[in-house]
């Protein structure tokens, strides 16, 4: 039986050659092979301004943030792939989540997040692979009301971590990633039934 669950994958880095974009594309490939649908937007292309309540009061929620929130509302789960900046989640990721969580007319912003499974992953050129920020990313997702999965993966020395096909060169890491997505899929099935 084909699984029709839908994953939103957010990448906390938008630079050309982003290691976390590579990780996210690997996630999408694994998810697709497991029968899941994925959406992998480019947050920077959505032109979401820095969170500013004065701007919110005068202009409302930016269209890009509304678009992301709608995708999250339609999705069954969220996967975040983000590097760390000084041990913290990136401003790009945090800003998008902040805007997405804002109330908007009759929409309670947190409703899009509440009760949905989430998985946090990271990749970085450094030895720890963004590990320091994973706990904070997980805490942020939990604060938004998500069911944060215990599985996680940080890919260190990520500039050399990917094969030409986009998979992780380290077979153990590739297996861990595949298993994390399988566990997420199982959680979605249990929540559905």
Describe it for me?
By secondary structure, the chain is α/β, with parallel strands linked by helices. It has a single domain, classed as 3-Layer(aba) Sandwich (Rossmann fold). It is built from 6 helices and 7 strands, in the order βαβααβββαβαβα. The strands form 2 sheets. Strands 2-1-3-6-7 form a 5-stranded parallel beta sheet, with helices on both faces. It has a two-stranded antiparallel ribbon with strand order 4-5. Helix 3 crosses helix 4 (91-100). The protein is globular, with a radius of gyration of 16 Å. The model has no long low-confidence stretch (mean pLDDT 94). Its cofactor is FMN. It holds the Pfam family FMN_red. Residues 7-158 form the NADPH-dependent FMN reductase-like domain. One of its GO terms (molecular function) is FMN binding. This is NADPH-dependent FMN reductase.
| CATH class assignment | Alpha Beta
Strand order in the sheet with the most strands: 2-1-3-6-7
Q: Could you estimate the helical fraction of the residues in percent?
A: 40-55%
The SSE order reads: EHEHHEEEHEHEH
- Number of domain modules: 1
> What does the overall shape look like?
globular
Could you say what the CATH architecture is? 3-Layer(aba) Sandwich
CATH superfamily: Flavodoxin domain
Distance, first to last CA: 15 Å
Largest sheet: 5 strands, parallel
Query: Which quaternary structure do these chains form?
Result: single chain
Unreliable runs: none
Mean pLDDT: 94
Rounded to the nearest angstrom, the radius of gyration is: 16 Å
- CATH fold-level label: Rossmann fold
Cofactor: FMN
Keywords: Flavoprotein, FMN
Domain NADPH-dependent FMN reductase-like: 7-158
InterPro entries: Flavoprotein-like_sf, FMN_Rdtase-like_dom, NAD(P)H-dep_reductase
